[in-house]
Every structure is written in structure tokens, then in C-alpha cells.
Design brief:
Elements lengths: L27 H4 L31 H10 L1 H12 L8 E3 L10 E3 L2 E2 L1 H12 L4 E6 L7 E4 H17 L7 E4 L5 H13 L2 E4 L6 H11 L3 E5 L2 E3 L2 E3 L1 H9 L7 E5 L12 E3 H6 L10 E2 L3 E7 L7 E6 L1 H14 L7 E4 L6 H13 L3 E5 L10 H9 L3 E4 L1 H8 L4 H4 L8 E4 L6 H11 L5 E4 L36 E4 L11 E7 L9 E2 L3 H8 L7 E9 L5 E6 L3 E4 L2 E4 H8 L7 E9 L3 E9 L8 H15 L8 E5 L12 H8 L16 H15 L6
Parallel strand pairs: 4-17, 6-7, 6-8, 8-11, 11-12, 16-17, 16-18, 18-19, 19-20, 29-30
Antiparallel strand pairs: 1-2, 3-13, 4-5, 9-10, 14-15, 15-23, 21-22, 22-24, 24-25, 26-27, 28-29
Helix pairs in contact: 2-3, 4-5, 4-6, 4-11, 5-6, 7-8, 10-11, 13-15
Length: 695
């Protein structure tokens, strides 16, 4: 192999071996924890301020005063931090202009900057050899470290490649890649030239991929030949081939190599590494307006069509940076590990944009928590000396079931901060995570936020020094976030020890600006039910002490292992079966996933195939049209569904049946035929006794 120039190393990785100079490779025995572990002396990191420096706001002496300032004078608070945190080409002339009653949101008006410059150039200029990324590949013990200089030069080569193939400012680019340095470079390359990226989770089916590409009208797709996860190969290029057949806007598909296997290449396919090698490692960044589009990210809605939420440049980047810094108490030199996929907002904000904007070292975790064994997370913590670890409650519950020994065999003394994201965490999992993984000495933050919010909105930290943390509770709003709880009539609930719909009454820089191509849907989804507020769709309880605890979704969204999914999307997939005239999907509690899908399905009398075969077909259809995680855990065949006289399916009644709360079904006065409830309950009881009778 030729001499490797900085910035080219990502292009010439023999992926299966990863034995280049600078790649930190351990033996397989060490990776599996079979060699004697290296016990390092316990080091207590001095407590940090955990909030903006006092010098930023003279006269503000406490956390409470800082919170009051962020709510009472948002222009001063956010304007000061925007000037101190970000590098501007042209400074803004107005901090914000927002009207939540109209769904109008704009921050840092008149300002211009480039997100990739803020995440790369300024750090590469100051400390070029600092590690930006540690790629924890699927193969244990073969991590690869990428410096800021290397990531910048690779990003520039990729940006130049896209420009040479016609990608311009404002064009949409679909990224369908596993968690990898190339995925991060692709995101930053789009930001550098002003293209709008939409990262699509590499577990989505070709149909789900194609739908998102069409909605965004993407000009190019960036993918690789295959993905690798838990030792299994995923045919990503084949998925893209199937998807783009029905995507007329796609002009090119850039194909990288994750494995050595050659895949068929068509007329629009371009071998990415070969093209990038032709390019210079320098690319002039576009100067972008604060409110220009940065990325689209698709999330499920209460209808069957996913919605492309729009995040813009300066406000999003500032919010991701500040929440990363203060919620996780990030200090210079820390190694931050968020194990989320880059296809989700958590990966955007706390794998990529937040840590890199802060000049940090961020871990890219490509594998699963139990590959090759249930000690994978903690062996990685030991080997990489991770300081902050941020993951999903689903994974914590899974690992809890394997016992403490898989944790205790590894040195975790480097950990300072633990965090959970994606769904509420139960008390048992929280206590295990804190006591066993964190040895009872690490701060544990249960964070609440959404794709729409751009970053963490409620979390135990930051707070006054020494303030308590209560298990399984998000607790405190972040700076500038003013929550409110509403009753069913839209009245604001005052005082404490109350439960209601969770809203946020003031705008903040990280909030999404619209739904791509459908602003009326944006208004209807988030701003019309409670005028003047952002409605989160979640319920919450405010405790007697004034702390917030999330109680779950209030709409037709279910949260499967941290992945939000609209029940209507699953119903649409099920209803495509020729023998299924009607279906209703609800979410129900699941010990491992937190929540799972339960489908009530009506079959045609004219069907010619058996119920077990139909159920198998239905599961296959959902997996192929959405993703495997969307497949209902339970499918119950019923004769009919409970409906009101106007024809609306009473899903709340079905949910009561699914969780065995049939003694109190609530008001059934609008039900067209009450006998249907008796029928479904009898069918469900028979199913519970012997699931094989229905499946």
C-alpha cells in the first residue's frame, strides 16, 4: 500500500483487518476479557462548574439565577453563549424572532457560519493530532482512531467529490450507512457545501428507505457495499438498489466498501473511495445563514406517513453543543461514548455535532451490547477509558438479565457520568446501572428529549452543586426550557403533584423549524392543540418537589426500544395483506423493550390460507416495509374491532384488554355494539392460555 497521507487513511482501510499504523488493535483474547485486566488506580476528577462560566454573565451568582436569566432574558442568555461558543463568518443582528402560536421560529437572524468549520477546522488548526473519533468496530478489539486533521481532510475530499458530481447548496443527500467515520464525514461534508443531509437508519427496509428518499427528493445517496453488525452481514447496497428504482430524483449512488465483497454496480453507481482519492483535501466552506437547512430527520407521526423534521444551522448546533457540555459535564480530554446509531437524533446530537463542536473525542459504536458476549460495553469502557457513557434503557434492561459478573470483570474506573435516553427507565434498571455499572459513584442522568427538540430538554443535570438526583426521573428543565402541564381542556395546571400533557411554553434554539414540505402538518402536530405552546405528545407528572417525571406518550406513537413509531404506520403495512380488511395496533408494556406493538387483526371470510400462515406473512410484511423492530410482538385475530357510532376504532379499550385491565374500560357510551368487547376479551383469554391457537 502506498504511503498514507493524513486524511487518506479512511479511504484505504482494509476493513476486515484494520492493521494500519495508528489503529489501536488488541488481541482477540484481550477483546473478550480473557487476558488479565489492567487495574488502574482510582482517580477522582475534581467537580466541575457544570454550568456556563460566571464570567459570561457578570452578577449572576447561582444556578437558580442563571435559570431565571435564561427564561427571563433569552436574548442575553442565548446571544452571549452563541458568541462565545460558535465561530461566525458574520455575527447575527437579532437573537430570536419566534411566535409559537404560528409555529414560526427563527434564531440568530442575519448570522452566517459553517457547521463543519465549527466542528472541524477550528479544532484541527489548534490541535490537529487530537483524536476526534474512535471507531469501535463490530469486530472487538479493532478500534480505529481518527484525528481532527484526518477527519477534516477526509470530509473535504468527500465534499469535493459531491461537488464534482453536481451536488449544490440546498440539494438533499441521503446517507444510508452504518455507524462509521465515513458516515460522520458524509454528514459534515454536506454541511460544508451547504447540502442538506438526511441520515436514514441502516436497519430500515428498502421500501422505508425509498419513501424517505422520495419525500426529501434526494439527489444522491451515500451507502456502502455491506454493513456488519454482531458478526452478521447486512446487504445495504442491495437495499439501496431496490429503493432507488422508484426514486427518479436520485442521480448518483456513492458506494463505499465496508467489507471486501464486490457488489454489482449500475450506471448511476460511483465507487466512493476511488473518487475521493482524486480530490484535494481542502474544500472552501459555504457561508450558511443561521436558518438555512442543515438536515432532515424522519420520525413517525400519528398518520402512516413519516415526517421529515427540519433542523437548521446555528440554533441546532449551539443547543447540541451546550447540552453535551453541561448535561454530561464534559471536560476537555474526556472520551464521550454515546452508543446510539447515527440514523437517530441521539446520534446526530451526541455522537456527532455536540461532541465535535466542543472539540471532544467521540466513540462510534458499530456493534451490539451482547456481541460477542454481554460484557461488550464494559470491555469497551475499559479498553478505551471512556468517561461518559450514554445508552438506551432497553439495552440496560437486557444486560441486567445477564447478571453482574459481566460488568464486574472489567475496569470501569474511568467512568464519571452515565446517561439514558429514548424512553423512561424503570427503577430496577436505573439502580442496577448506577450501583453495578457506576459503582455507586457516577452521576446518572435520565434525559428526556425528542427528535423535534434537537437536544436534551429535561435532565437531572445541570443543577446546583450537590443537588440530589432521584432514580428514574428526568427532574429538571435545561436552561431556557419552561415546561407546563395542561389538562384535557387546555388549562394550565398550576402547583405541584399534578399530571398532564407536557408542553413547553418558550422557544429554544434547538427546536425543529418545520416538517419538510408540510408546514400545516407541523402546526397541527405540535402547536394547535395548546395554542402558544409546543405540545410534546408526552404526559408528565410534576412531583411535590417540582421535579418532572415522564409518564409516556399520549398519542398514537409507541416507543419500541427507544425508537418512536406511529401505530398508523404499522397498520398501513398490515392492511396491505389481501386478507386483512381492518387492523388496529396499540402499544403495551414490555419487560425488555419498554413498549411493544400489539396488533388486533380482522380477516376476510373469503380467505383461502390458514391463520398461522397469514400471521407469518403479516410479520414479514412489516419487517420488509418498515423494519424488523416494528414487527408486532403479538398479533390477535378477532372477528371485528370496537368502534364508535361514527366508525372510530376505540384503541384505548383495546389497550385495556391487552394489559388485562378489563374491570375498568371507561366510558363505552359511544360504542356502536358493546357485544364486540365481550367477544374480543374471550378471544384474548383463549389466546393467552394457548397462543398457538391464534397463531
Amino acid at each position: 500500500m502506498a504511503t498514507i497521507v493524513a486524511g487518506q487513511r479512511l479511504l484505504q482501510i482494509p476493513f476486515k483487518r484494520c492493521l494500519l499504523p495508528g489503529a489501536c488493535v488488541k488481541s482477540k483474547a484481550a477483546a473478550r476479557g480473557l487476558e488479565p485486566k489492567r487495574i488502574r488506580p482510582f482517580h477522582v476528577t475534581p467537580p466541575a462548574a457544570n454550568m456556563p462560566e460566571a464570567s459570561s454573565f457578570p452578577g449572576v451568582r447561582s444556578y437558580a439565577e442563571l435559570m431565571d436569566l435564561s427564561i427571563g432574558d433569552p436574548d442575553k442568555f442565548w446571544g452571549t453563549l452563541a458568541k462565545e461558543t460558535l465561530v461566525w463568518n458574520q455575527l447575527f443582528h437579532r437573537v430570536h424572532d419566534c411566535d409559537l402560536s404560528k409555529g414560526f421560529i427563527a434564531w440568530f437572524l442575519g448570522g452566517q457560519l459553517n457547521v463543519s468549520v465549527n466542528c472541524l477546522d477550528r479544532h484541527a488548526n489548534q490541535f490537529p493530532n487530537r483524536v476526534a473519533l474512535i471507531w469501535e468496530r463490530d469486530e472487538p478489539g479493532t478500534e480505529l482512531k481518527i484525528t481532527y486533521r484526518e477527519l477534516l481532510e477526509t470530509t473535504c475530499r468527500l465534499a469535493n467529490t459531491m461537488k464534482r458530481h453536481g451536488v449544490q447548496k440546498g440539494d438533499r443527500v441521503a446517507i444510508y450507512l452504518p455507524v462509521s467515520p465515513l458516515g460522520i464525514a458524509a454528514m459534515l461534508a454536506c454541511a460544508r457545501i451547504g447540502a442538506v443531509h438526511t441520515v436514514i437508519f441502516a436497519g430500515f427496509s428498502s421500501q422505508a428507505l425509498g419513501g424517505r428518499i422520495r419525500d426529501a427528493q434526494c439527489k444522491v445517496v451515500i451507502t456502502c457495499n455491506q454493513g456488519v453488525r454482531a458478526g452478521r452481514v447486512i446487504e445495504l447496497k442491495r437495499m439501496v438498489d431496490e429503493a432507488v428504482r422508484a426514486c427518479p430524483t436520485v442521480k448518483h449512488v456513492f458506494v463505499a466498501q465496508r467489507t471486501d465483497k464486490k457488489v454489482p454496480m449500475g450506471n448511476t453507481d460511483i465507487p466512493l473511495e476511488e473518487e475521493m482519492e482524486k480530490e484535494q483535501p481542502v474544500c472552501d466552506p459555504e457561508s450558511m445563514d443561521s436558518e438555512d437547512l442543515l438536515f432532515l430527520l424522519y420520525t413517525s407521526g400519528s398518520t402512516g406517513k413519516p415526517k421529515g423534521l427540519v433542523h437548521t444551522q446555528a440554533g441546532y448546533l449551539l443547543y447540541a453543543s451546550l447540552t453535551h457540555k453541561y448535561v454530561f459535564d464534559y471536560q476537555e480530554g474526556d472520551i464521550h461514548c454515546c452508543v446510539a446509531d447515527i440514523g437517530w437524533i441521539t446520534g446526530h446530537s451526541y455522537v456527532v455535532y455536540g461532541p465535535l463542536c466542543n472539540g471532544g473525542t467521540t466513540v462510534l459504536f458499530e456493534s451490539t451490547p451482547i456481541y460477542p458476549d454481554p460484557g461488550r460495553y464494559w470491555e469497551t469502557v475499559q479498553r478505551l477509558r471512556i468517561n461518559q457513557f450514554y445508552g438506551a434503557p432497553t439495552a440496560i434492561r437486557l444486560l441486567l438479565n445477564y447478571g453482574d459478573s459481566w460488568v464486574s470483570k472489567y475496569d470501569r474506573s474511568s467512568l464519571k457520568m452515565l446517561g439514558t435516553v429514548g424512553e423512561p427507565i424503570n427503577h430496577e434498571a436505573w439502580k442496577w446501572f448506577w450501583k453495578v455499572v457506576g459503582d455507586g459513584r457516577c452521576t446518572l442522568v435520565d434525559t428526556w428529549w425528542q427528535t423535534e427538540t434537537g437536544g436534551i430538554c429535561i435532565s437531572p443535570r445541570p443543577s446546583e452543586k450537590g443537588a440530589k438526583i432521584l432514580p428514574a426521573m428526568a427532574m429538571r428543565p435545561f436552561f431556557g426550557i419552561q415546561p407546563a402541564l395542561m389538562d384535557e381542556k387546555g388549562n394550565r395546571l398550576e402547583g405541584n403533584d399534578v399530571t398532564g400533557a407536557l408542553c413547553i411554553t418558550k422557544p429554544w434554539p434547538g427546536i425543529a423549524r418545520t416538517i419538510y414540505g408540510d408546514h400545516p402538518r407541523f402546526l397541527n402536530s405540535y402547536f394547535e392543540k395548546y395554542p402558544g405552546c409546543y405540545f410534546t405528545g408526552d404526559g408528565a407528572h410534576r412531583s411535590e418537589e417540582g421535579y418532572y417525571q415522564i409518564t409516556g406518550r399520549m398519542d398514537d406513537i409507541i416507543n419500541i426500544g427507544g425508537h418512536r413509531l406511529g401505530t398508523a404506520e404499522i397498520e398501513d403495512a398490515l392492511a396491505e395483506h389481501p386478507d386483512v380488511p381492518e387492523t388496529a395496533v396499540i402499544g403495551y408494556p414490555h419487560d425488555l423493550k419498554g413498549e411493544a406493538a400489539f396488533a388486533f387483526v380482522v380477516l376476510k371470510d373469503t380467505r383461502t390460507i390458514s391463520e398461522p400462515v397469514i400471521i407469518k406473512d403479516l410479520k414479514s410484511t412489516v419487517a420488509s416495509k418498515i423494519a424488523k423492530y416494528a414487527v408486532p410482538d403479538q398479533i390477535l385475530i378477532v372477528k371485528r374491532l370496537p368502534k364508535t357510532r361514527s366508525g372510530k376504532i376505540m384503541r384505548r379499550v383495546l389497550k385495556k384488554i391487552a394489559i388485562d385491565e378489563t374491570s375498568n374500560l371507561g366510558d363505552l357510551s359511544t360504542l356502536d355494539d358493546p357485544q364486540v368487547i365481550t367477544e374480543i376479551i374471550a378471544t384474548y383469554k383463549k389466546y393467552k392460555k394457548d397462543p398457538a391457537t391464534s397463531q
